[in-house]
Amino acid sequence: MDTMTKRDYYEVLGVSKSASADEIKKSFRNRARQLHPDNKESGDEAAFKELAEAYEVLSDEQKKAAYDRYGHEGVKGSTRDFDNVDFSNFQGFGFEDIIDALFGGQFGGGFRGGSASRTGPRPGAHLKYDLEIEFLDAVFGVEKKVQVKRLEDCTTCEGSGAAAGSKAVTCATCNGQGQVRQMVNMLFMQSYQIVACPDCHGSGKKIDKPCKDCKGVGQTRKAREFEVKVPAGIDSGTRLRLSQAGDKGANGGGYGDLFVVIYVKEHKQFLRDGQTIHLKQPLSFSQAALGCELMVPTVEGNKPLKVPAGIQNGSQLLMKDLGVPYLSNNGRRGDQVVHVFVETPSKLSAEERKLFEKLAELRGEKLTSEAKDADGKAAGKASEAEPKGKKSDKSDSKSNGKGEKKDHKNKEDENIFEKIVDVFRPKGEHGSD
Ligand SMILES: [Zn+2]
Ligand SMILES: [Zn+2]
Predict the structure, then answer these.
(1) For the CA of 164, the nearest ligand
(2) What's the gap in Å between 220 CA and the centre of ligand 1?
(3) Confidence (pLDDT) at 313
(4) For residue 85, what pLDDT is reported?
(5) How far is the CA of 159 from the centre of ligand 1 (A)?
(6) What is the pLDDT of residues 46-84, one digit of tens each?
(7) Sign of the four-CA dihedral 147, 76, 152, 163
(8) What does the pLDDT read at residue 430?
(9) What is the CATH number for 38?
(10) Backbone phi and psi for residue 254, each to the nearest 5 degrees, phi listed first
(11) Residues 247, 274 within the same domain
(12) Which residues are 298's β-sheet partners?
């Protein structure tokens, strides 16, 4: 699945693995300035979110270490859900404000944004978890456990950030406001900008003896396990929301949510298209000509299927209600479409050959060209020239007077079948070239 192949975070940030924290930060700022959604010329929301996620990991010592060792797997469930950031919240804010809202002050702060007081409770951040599930689990639903590392109030200091016996005092620099006015030079005028207080990093408090466990932040990341009920009929890309399973907000704010993004693995036999399941079913000449009853694989195990006599290669047979349940209405299901694939026998025993020759004779089908004027020798030769299987000439010049109707009845159907055959091909038994 494409969505599973995330880009390397170092590549996203355009830095080497040995880049210093400063280099990472600098590169992030440069790229973020170009990509952030407020930039009318080069803004790109999707790229910005990718960048923000990469920076979130590489700017955090712990997460960076986990990423360096285990790759994306190592930071699963501990990055915020940037997909869910509503950037319209940031309209009217400058670039620095956006970066500040996303990464400023204490980590995990209210990136739902705005300029609300920094010292009050802030809503917790949403987290994202990519969950890969089996094909059949997506069809029938499944319960899964996911482990996330989310911010919670530090239990040692109960969220105050101060060591036992020590207290948090109001920050003198900002008078407890958490923010200060800073003069900035714009083109021809001077202006003020509100920024996070550099002394207390926006908390409005200063701690003389910080809590050891959380280094004065008041919060730590803890591994938590949540149960996810994945409903029957789910497809890749669907997001399940677990309310209150995200980060705890700073300063007594509530929990954010956890978004579980589903990725469905491919199946060896079944190909899913919405609620429909496609299956390729090989048939022999005789089965196709005579008709038969077969046991064919379905998501509910093997089921009987009647194949009518005279069926053509590429025909589709419908197995009703053996597809994928509709998410919205689990009583309703899609169908399974069986694509018939008539296989030419590649090896014949002497007896089989005789029977085929007899059959050809009965049907008046010529095995040699007119020019060669058939005798026994020529027939022997033809069988040697066969294996590469280029028969386009032959079938065109086949003139048995029976006026075989070659109706490609539905071009579109054929194309779909071709695509499906292509999908099956890589794992396939017919590794022709
Ligand atoms: Zn603490
Ligand atoms: Zn301050």
Answers:
(1) 1
(2) 8
(3) 95
(4) 65
(5) 6
(6) 888 888 889 888 988 888 888 998 888 888 887 777 776
(7) positive
(8) 41
(9) 1.10.287.110
(10) -75, 180
(11) no
(12) 301
Cα of 183 vs centre of ligand 2, distance in Å, is 17
Ligand 2 geometric centre to CA of 106 (Å): 13
Measure 243 CA to ligand 1 centroid, in angstroms.
25
Rounded to the nearest angstrom, the distance between the alpha carbon of 174 and the centre of ligand 1 is 23
Which domain range does residue 33 map to?
Answer: 9-119
Q: Are residues 98 and 129 in the same domain?
A: no
Ligand sitting nearest the alpha carbon of 119: 2
Please give the distance, rounded to the nearest whole angstrom, from the Cα atom of residue 206 to the centre of ligand 2: 7
In this predicted structure, what is the pLDDT of residue 265? Answer: 96
Per the domain annotation, does 193 fall within a domain?
no
Whose atoms come closest to the Cα of 213: which ligand?
1
110 and 22 co-located in one domain: yes
Span from the CA of 79 to the centroid of ligand 1 (angstroms)? 22
pLDDT of residue 355: 93
| Ligand nearest to C-alpha 200 | 2
What's the confidence (pLDDT) of residue 374?
46
Regarding whether 238 and 315 lie in a shared domain, the answer is no
Angle (CA) 79 82 85, round 5°? 140
**pLDDT in the model for residue 350:** 96
Q: Give the integer Cα–Cα distance in Å for 131 and 340.
A: 34
pTM of the model: 0.59
**Residues 275 and 358 both lie in one domain:** yes
Could you tell me if 305 and 230 lie in one domain? Answer: no
Q: How far apart are CA 400 and CA 420, in angstroms?
A: 33
Ligand 1 centroid, distance to 210 Cα (angstroms): 8
Segments of the chain scoring below 50 in pLDDT: 1-3, 89, 91-92, 105-117, 373-374, 376-383, 385-410, 424-433
Distance between Cα 298 and ligand 1 center (Å): 55
Q: Within this chain, do residues 315 and 240 fall inside the same structural domain, yes or no?
A: no
Is residue 302 located within the same domain as residue 228?
no
CB within 8 Å of 145: residues ≥ 6 apart: 225, 226, 227, 228
- 197 part of a folded domain: no
Nearest residue to 157 (alpha-carbon basis) of 168, 147, 146: 168
Does residue 174 belong to any structural domain of this protein?
Answer: no
Handedness of CA 36, 38, 40, 45 (dihedral sign): positive
The CATH number of residue 235's host domain is 2.60.260.20
Q: What pLDDT, in 10s, does the model give residues 405-427? A: 444 444 555 555 555 555 544 34
Q: Where are the alpha helices (DSSP H) in 271-430?
A: 285-290, 350-362, 376-385, 392-397, 411-424
User: pLDDT digits over 307-318, tens only?
Assistant: 999 999 999 999
Q: Nearest ligand, CA of residue 201?
A: 2
Ligand at shortest distance from the CA of 211: 1
Q: Which residues surround the ion ligand 1 when the cut-off is CB under 5 Å?
A: 154, 156-157, 211, 213-214
